[in-house]
């Protein structure tokens, strides 16, 4: 088998797609509210969620590398009983494809919010708003996502998302430094777990925005494409994948911590309450100067755009795998899936539609899907097809801990969804 210097030395790889996926507007909102309401006290939940994500994503990457297939294809092979297989595969389609269609509206809306804060005074933007109620940024950002996915080979998409993750890192960490956080309180919050009164749902939400099922489909398929099992020795690819995970996922956690810290510095302990991210951006200017506001807005735009690319991509990988179609960006089912999701996101965002019913449905489906996918992944990682690359006892033990956490997240998602009834 051949190996390449790129595979040995690349600092960023498929794990960057996972970081780009979970650092979206939802994470920005959740982390901002956690910081504003509870200060630095819940940063330990982010530390835990990063560790849990690394455990699951390492398994997903190893599965993709050794089998040469995505998670959807492996689920087809793993679950042979048709009474179990088709309900499971249908749930995957519903939760990931339909769910990501709804969440795509939030991704584009979040990116548009950041772009509007950066370029609100532009003459062209103001003229557009005078003649149309449609959000111009939603159309433009949806078009950018579509162009990247339409013309992009995997390498190009990976490079675009690496650039966005680096931009998010500089923007959010730069904002944190400009707001001068309390480092002693930050370190205590990271390594001394505590749950203040009323913070239980915030803890679960912080974990839930990081440990998400569709990232497992994304990572397994991307790793299979990054390191083709016929061209790269599995042990070499797995080593590179672990190095990639060790860099990209903690970087995503650092971004989340920076957002919590910024909100804690700006709002915690003050009479003013934080209701949304736009309010946080507005509050930074009088307190810390326009540079902090610009950094936050730039990070929000990058977060929304990165998730607006990865959500359709993950859904397409999942559906293609479930239908046993090639994981080819130009394959018709693959392309039709991400086009549908991008269009849904643009319509929902540009027209200001609130997809409450669809999001409710997605919450229920995702609440059921997460522990099921965790369980299936653990079963797959102990299958004989993996040979020497099967899970060892430590990996299974850590996986079971994450499975228990996923059950907690499942209960929270279902409780929130039925609370909307």
Automatic annotation (TrEMBL):
Keywords: Membrane, Symport, Transmembrane, Transmembrane helix, Transport. The chain crosses the membrane at residues 40-61, 82-103, 134-152, 159-179, 199-224, 245-268, 288-320, 332-353, 359-380, 400-420. Pfam families: Nramp. It is a multi-pass membrane protein. It comes from the Bacteria. InterPro entries: NRAMP_fam. It is found in: Membrane. This is Nramp family divalent metal transporter. It comes from Rheinheimera aquimaris.
């Amino acid at each position: 088998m051949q190996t390449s210097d790129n595979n040995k030395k690349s600092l960023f790889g498929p794990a960057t797609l996972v970081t780009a996926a979970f650092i979206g507007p939802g994470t920005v909102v959740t982390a901002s509210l956690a910081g504003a309401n509870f200060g630095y006290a819940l940063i330990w939940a982010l530390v835990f969620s990063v560790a849990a994500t690394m455990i699951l994503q390492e398994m997903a990457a190893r599965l993709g590398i050794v089998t040469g297939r995505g998670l959807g294809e492996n689920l087809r092979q793993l679950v042979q009983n048709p009474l179990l297989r088709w309900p499971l595969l249908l749930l995957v389609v519903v939760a990931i494809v339909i769910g990501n269609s709804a969440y795509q509206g939030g991704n584009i809306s979040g990116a548009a919010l950041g772009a509007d804060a950066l370029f609100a005074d532009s003459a062209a933007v103001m003229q557009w708003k005078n003649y149309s109620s449609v959000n111009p940024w939603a159309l433009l950002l949806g078009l950018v996502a579509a162009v990247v996915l339409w013309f992009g080979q995997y390498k190009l998409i990976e490079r675009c998302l690496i650039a966005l993750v680096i931009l998010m890192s500089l923007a959010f960490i730069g904002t944190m430094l400009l707001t001068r956080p309390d480092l002693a309180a930050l370190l205590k919050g990271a390594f001394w777990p505590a749950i203040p009164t009323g913070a239980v749902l915030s803890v679960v939400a912080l974990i839930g925005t990081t440990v998400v099922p569709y990232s497992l489909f994304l990572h397994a398929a991307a790793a299979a494409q990054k390191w083709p099992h016929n061209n790269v020795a599995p042990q070499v690819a797995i080593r590179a994948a672990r190095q990639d995970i060790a860099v990209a996922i903690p970087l995503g956690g650092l971004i989340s911590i920076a957002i919590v810290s910024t909100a804690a510095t700006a709002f915690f302990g003050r009479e003013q309450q934080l209701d949304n991210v736009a309010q946080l951006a507005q509050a930074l200017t009088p307190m810390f100067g326009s540079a902090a506001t610009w950094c936050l807005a730039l990070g929000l735009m990058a977060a929304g755009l990165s998730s607006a690319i990865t959500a359709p991509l993950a859904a397409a990988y999942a559906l293609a795998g479930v239908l046993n179609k090639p994981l080819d960006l130009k394959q018709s089912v693959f392309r039709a899936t991400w086009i549908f999701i991008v269009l849904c996101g643009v319509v929902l965002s540009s027209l200001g539609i609130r997809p409450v019913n669809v999001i409710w449905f997605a919450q229920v489906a995702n609440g059921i899907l997460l522990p099921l996918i965790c369980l299936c992944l653990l079963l797959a990682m102990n299958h004989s097809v993996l040979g020497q690359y099967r899970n060892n006892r430590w990996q299974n033990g850590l996986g079971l801990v994450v499975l228990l956490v996923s059950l907690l997240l499942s209960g929270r998602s279902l409780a929130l969804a039925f609370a909307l009834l």
